[in-house]
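User: structure tokens for this one?
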Amino acid sequence: MSESSDNFEFEKLAHDMALVRITKEDPSYKASETAAEIIQELVFLAITNTKGKQDPHITLKEIFRGVTQALFALNKDMPQACVRLLQEIPHLSERLELDFATLMTWAMEGIASLSAPLGRENCHKIRAKIDENFMGTGEIFEKLCAQNH
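Assistant:
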């Protein structure tokens, strides 16, 4: 269910875009790359076009949740895919002129909000992979997952 104040359905849009684009992709192209492209495009457009209408926290969280749901539904390598999505945060931070740490937390909230369907084992693997790539952030992700179980 969306937390949008103005009924922007970014979670559904992100989910549907990811499902369509990933299933139509060239098999040699990684699903996580397509998902990262969607994150980069959709987050930037959604946040810049809803300024003053929706909290960017909600927008970013919904988009990460939607794309992550699609990757999970398509049985993709979740730890690798989640890290690839989070690798877009520095670019988004620069483009949107928003704090990197804040955006990273919001993005991980979107992923962690799926901790129940992802399961504990997947969450532990995602946490390890996040910590391997973004030192110190795995613990934050783990706490966010605990809030959603």
